[in-house]
């Protein structure tokens, strides 16, 4: 399954939510992202069938090895790009919004160059 931007956003959200140490459920993702329960349910089904997450009998979401790899990659891009833009003088809010858009389209080569240049 080729993962689109929306799938990457769901994986990143599950990753961020899982960092709290609490089990992550679909309702948590729905509230975090501001999406309807049916939309989240559909996306969770697609991510599950794509091998990016598992769902246990209690409904807790768990990233698979591949899901974690994708989520960590997107999260790193978001975090570094936000810091880089703030360093350039962009407001925190705008930097985070712009980083959220950039993280899905930037090439690995360009991101590595920015990472190296930024020293962050």
Low-confidence stretches: none
What's the helical proportion of residues?
Answer: 55-70%
| Order of the strands making up the biggest sheet | 1-3-2
Which band does the percent of strand residues land in? 5-15%
> The CATH topology of the largest domain, please?
Arc Repressor Mutant, subunit A
Rounded to the nearest angstrom, the radius of gyration is 15 Å
Mean pLDDT: 93
Order of helices and strands: HEHHEEHHH
CATH architecture of the largest domain: Orthogonal Bundle
Biggest sheet architecture: 3 strands, antiparallel
Query: So what's the CATH class of the largest domain?
Result: Mainly Alpha
What is the overall silhouette?
Answer: elongated
Superfamily at the CATH H level of the largest domain?
Winged helix-like DNA-binding domain superfamily/Winged helix DNA-binding domain
Q: Counting H and I runs of at least 4 residues, what is the number of helices? A: 6
Instruction: Give the structural class.
Output: mainly alpha
Number of strands: 3
């Amino acid at each position: 399954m080729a993962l689109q931007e929306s799938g990457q956003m769901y994986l990143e959200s599950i990753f961020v939510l899982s960092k709290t140490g609490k089990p992550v459920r679909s309702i948590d993702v729905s509230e975090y992202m501001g999406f309807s329960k049916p939309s989240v349910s559909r996306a969770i089904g697609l991510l599950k069938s794509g091998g990016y997450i598992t769902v246990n009998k209690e409904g807790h979401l768990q990233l698979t090895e591949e899901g974690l790899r994708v989520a960590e990659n997107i999260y790193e891009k978001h975090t570094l790009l936000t810091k880089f833009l703030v360093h350039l003088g962009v407001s925190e809010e705008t930097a985070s919004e712009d980083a959220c858009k950039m993280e899905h389209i930037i090439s690995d080569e360009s991101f590595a160059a920015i990472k190296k240049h930024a020293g962050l």
